């Protein structure tokens, strides 16, 4: 519980910073959707639909951290303002567990159509795709901490739903697997597998799936004391293996997108950003996420 309290204290600062920062008023607002389809764990759905929606809009799922809510992620990140600019729709799920964390450990969420929080989020996506004509070919997911872990869960269990994902301060798919909701060995970076073993965990989530796999962007702070930095390298091993690309970088850029940070690319399908000196409370650069997703034209253009 102490570890989860640390998650809350650090990530709360993200939301406070955004609330205090100057910004433009929005014509649209966050709205709750109560009936969106199959919802085995009873999680809550909120959606932000900008005043000007692009034709066949992209859909972005933004998943909050432990002890957080949909409203916290809405207020604490810039995805809604970017939706105003580019005309995409943002889904903000809200966990209902006692600690506000997502189930990223149970067998239900670690397999395709297995139920749990993950399948409830997929139902939200399908609702938006149908209700607002969202583009299945431009459906994405991102999240921080517990939300970053859920991002990897969704990419692994539902490769047929998401085209790309961006995980901030997360852990590899399946790393938290087990009977308890908190996995200390994983959080401390003590689970070390080969790339093949990590990849097999993802492939076993949807046996027989032969379709395209989502592109992956990973972010992690070197001084993370909640979900240790070692998980960053394990996640790179996992997704390069799953996507069939070399674990040898094709490019490395220093001091980008911020000073002292390093961006490493593994072809066009895996991108990893090392935030030097950053703790668990990462800076979430939503514009860089949207760029990676390929969302870049203003609504109506």
TrEMBL record:
GO terms for molecular function: hydrolase activity. InterPro entries: AB_hydrolase_fold, Esterase_phb, Plant_Biomass_Hydrol_Est. SUPFAM superfamilies: alpha/beta-Hydrolases (SSF53474). It comes from the Bacteria. The keyword Phosphoprotein does not apply. Residues 1-27 form the signal peptide. The keyword Hydrolase applies. Keywords: Hydrolase, Signal. GO terms for cellular component: extracellular region. PANTHER family: FERULOYL ESTERASE, UNNAMED PRODUCT-RELATED. This is Esterase/lipase.
